[in-house]
Structure formats: structure tokens, C-alpha cells
Design a protein that fits this description.
Blueprint: H1 3-23, H2 31-46, H3 60-87, H4 90-112, H5 119-136, H6 151-177, H7 181-202, H8 206-238, H9 243-249, H10 252-263, H11 270-288
Helix pairs in contact: 1-8, 1-10, 2-7, 2-8, 3-4, 3-6, 3-7, 4-5, 4-6, 4-9, 5-9, 5-10, 5-11, 7-8, 10-11
Length: 289
């Protein structure tokens, strides 16, 4: 696997972990935060497009289709994820989504994009996914009152499917229409704004949008800078290496956030977090070999 692609994916994981740590509280504000995130991402990164190859192609139909579908898929992902957090245990939703997403991405990439992995790389992928799921389940508490299928698992699976859908589509769009990762990311963020505008309007939340900016504008700007950067790095990586390898590698961010929680915030079960992190690192090594 390309060393540059690995470096891009792992750097993306670090950046993704950074914005999660910085903005973890404000991100719970729902539609107001999602609206600000899309607006901030668009405004901050739009000025970078001319310096990164423009749109990368003159195929306007390809640009519109690629960005439009990606925007819808990202909105679906964030909507299902937020719904899952309201319906079930957060850690269960997160773990299921972050395990299912890359797993499905690997399967779909091999079936639809014709990607092939060496056995060692495939073993590494499975280790990364297993370690990510283990980290996500650290704080899960069983419910003695719940009967039937856990809604957190259901929404986690749906979120994972959404992750796989936008990951595969974005890889296809960039490769098929030769789109620039920066322009593609900006276009996707801009495409999300109308959806979140409707969500805020329906919820009568414009007052909360203004209040959120006044209190949390620094974190909103940090999100608008770092979240797109993380995904731009991922998009660049999937132009250089198989999606089946990049999708699991980006989940190293889960490890970093978990370790931050263990050592900086003194969250529970640090030994479990460290053991699961070692499994992820072993998977990364196998992928890189």
C-alpha cells in the first residue's frame, strides 16, 4: 500500500480526533450545530478551491451529480446518527456504526469497485474493525429492562450502512469524474445547507442557532476548519489506494479519542481501552506491510 496514502489516512484520523475532542460538547446541539457546521465548512474552505486545482474537471454534470448525491448521503448519515443517539445507548450506536461502516465499505469495494486485498491486509482490516468495536463498547451498560432488539444496535447498523454508502459513492465520484477533493468536500458541505436549514426551520430553532454562535463560535470555527480537512485527506487517500484499506484506517481516530478519554479525562476501564488500541495498531501494521 502507498506510504503516502497511509500517511494521509492516519493524519486524517488525528485531525478527526482533534475536532471531536474540541467540539464534543457543542456537537450535541443538534440541527443548529449541523447547520453551522455546514456553513462554516463551506465558507472557510471555498477560498482554497482555486489553489487546489479547481474542480478538477470541466464535466459539470459529473460535478453536480457527484456532489449532489454525496450531500444527500451525508445528510442521511448525520440524521440517522442523531436519531440513534436519542433512541439508544450512545457508545453502542457509535461502536456498531464505526464497525459496520468500514466492514461494509470493504465488502462493497471488493464487489463493486473490483478491489482486491492481500490476506495480510485483509487480516489487518479485520483487526482494526474488531479493535474499534471493542473500544466503542467499553462504556456500554446492559439494560435489564430492554426486551427485543436493542434500538441502539439497529440505528448503529443503519448509520454504518450510511457511512459505507457515502464512502463508496465518494470514491467512485472522485475516480470516475476526476474531481478535486477540496472542491468536492466544499460542494458536499454546501449541498447540506438547504437540508439543515429546513430542519432548523421546522424545529423553530433559529433563535438557538444565534445563541449557539454567540456562545460557541470558536468551536464552530474549529469544526469548520478541521472536520473538512480530515475528510479531504481521506478523499485524497482513496485516489491513491483501495477504499477497502482507507476506510478502516480512518477509524484510528476512535482509538485516539478513547485514549484521550482514558488518560486526560480519566474515563473508565483504561486497560480495556489500551488493549483494544493495541489490536487496532496491529491491524494498521498488517495493512501497511
Amino acid at each position: 500500500m502507498s506510504g503516502i496514502a497511509i500517511a494521509l489516512a492516519l493524519t486524517a484520523a488525528v485531525v478527526h480526533a482533534a475536532w471531536n475532542i474540541i467540539a464534543h460538547d457543542v456537537s450535541r446541539a443538534g440541527a443548529a450545530f449541523l447547520w453551522w457546521g455546514a456553513v462554516a465548512s463551506t465558507v472557510i474552505w471555498a477560498g482554497v478551491i482555486p489553489f487546489t486545482g479547481g474542480f478538477g474537471t470541466d464535466d459539470l454534470a459529473g460535478i453536480a451529480l457527484g456532489i449532489g448525491v454525496s450531500g444527500v448521503l451525508h445528510v442521511i448519515y448525520m440524521t440517522v446518527l442523531q436519531r440513534g443517539y436519542r433512541a439508544g445507548n450512545l457508545s453502542t450506536v457509535y461502536a456498531t456504526a464505526r464497525g459496520t461502516g468500514p466492514f461494509l465499505s470493504v465488502i462493497i469495494a471488493m464487489l463493486l469497485l473490483g478491489e482486491r486485498l492481500q490476506l495480510s491486509a485483509l487480516a489487518g482490516v479485520l483487526l482494526v474493525i474488531a479493535g474499534v468495536v471493542a473500544i466503542g463498547l467499553v462504556d456500554r451498560r446492559p439494560s435489564s429492562e430492554r426486551r427485543g432488539l436493542d434500538p441502539a444496535i439497529v440505528f448503529g447498523l443503519l448509520t454504518g450502512a450510511a457511512i459505507a454508502a457515502y464512502t463508496i459513492w465518494d470514491a467512485f465520484a472522485l475516480r470516475n469524474w476526476h474531481l478535486s477533493p477540496v472542491a468536492f468536500m466544499v460542494g458536499t458541505a454546501a449541498a447540506e445547507i438547504p437540508f439543515f436549514t429546513v430542519a432548523v426551520s421546522v424545529g423553530h430553532g433559529w433563535r438557538s442557532v444565534g445563541a449557539l454562535w454567540r456562545v460557541q463560535w470558536r468551536r464552530i470555527l474549529a469544526f469548520g476548519l478541521l472536520s473538512p480537512l480530515a475528510y479531504i485527506l481521506v478523499l485524497q487517500a482513496i485516489t491513491l489506494a483501495p477504499v477497502a484499506l482507507i476506510a478502516p484506517l480512518r477509524e484510528v481516530s476512535v482509538v485516539l479519542v478513547s485514549l484521550f478519554g482514558a488518560f486526560a479525562l480519566r474515563e473508565s476501564r483504561p486497560a480495556w481501552r489500551i488493549a483494544a488500541s493495541v489490536v487496532v495498531v496491529a491491524g494498521v501494521v498488517l495493512i501497511a506491510v
